[in-house]
Amino acid sequence: NNSAVSSKGVLAVGSQTSGRILIWNSVPDTNGTPANIVVGSPDFYSTDDGPTDAYMRNVEGVCFSPDGEKLIASDGNNNRVLIWNTIPTANAQPADIVIGQTDFTSSSAGIGPDKFNYPSGVIVTPNGKLIINDYNNNRVLIYNQIPITNGASADLVVGQDDFYSNSAGVGANKLYSPWYSDVSPDGRLIIGDIENNRVLVFNEFPTQNGASADVVIGQTDFITSTPGVSDRKMYYPVGVTVSPK
Predict the structure, then answer these.
(1) How far is Cα 31 from Cα 35, in angstroms, rounded to an integer?
(2) pTM above 0.85, yes or no
(3) How many other β-carbons are positioned within 10 Å of the β-carbon of residue 58?
(4) What is the pLDDT of residues 33-65, one digit of tens each?
């Protein structure tokens, strides 16, 4: 989702339209507490769309690595994800790694294991797998570890049979504009499938491209996608999260 708390208690909140991340060194306990650090913009009072290693256009998702050391953020319209190897301690601190692009000044959309078309949600599993929702490519990309080099390729794709397909669809192995994902404490992958008005649950974390979900909620089967308002229906489900217990 677009806010996260690290295992060390640091709070990060992404701003979709202003392209910045506000960081509090601890979760505030009083109203109106000012942030300690801003990244993605030059300072607290101005913006810059980039793309550079320090400036972002619009932040759609933020997360921390399990050890609380790394900050990861999706820069949607710049079609990239930035990684800070340590939690920033200075305003406009440059990112260390970019994926989706080969350098920090490129922003083209694309398809393949090393490209994005509007990345949205980003999360890291407890065992270090990076999951990125590639919204306009109708897929979720999985990296077996957090990349350490620019332009790194994903290891798996969900929602498509291969890295070079991006058609929207309905079914147990298809997605239509997935926005956010999460992983349950017992290792199940959960994806919010917005345009299909449903949430998919994979009982086993995918190990091959094009894996099929085991459970659908928001619909009674895998081939229906109608929206609705009831205890069994959904209308444009965006965010998904699972509590630690």
Answers:
(1) 12
(2) yes
(3) 19
(4) 999 999 999 999 999 999 999 999 999 999 999
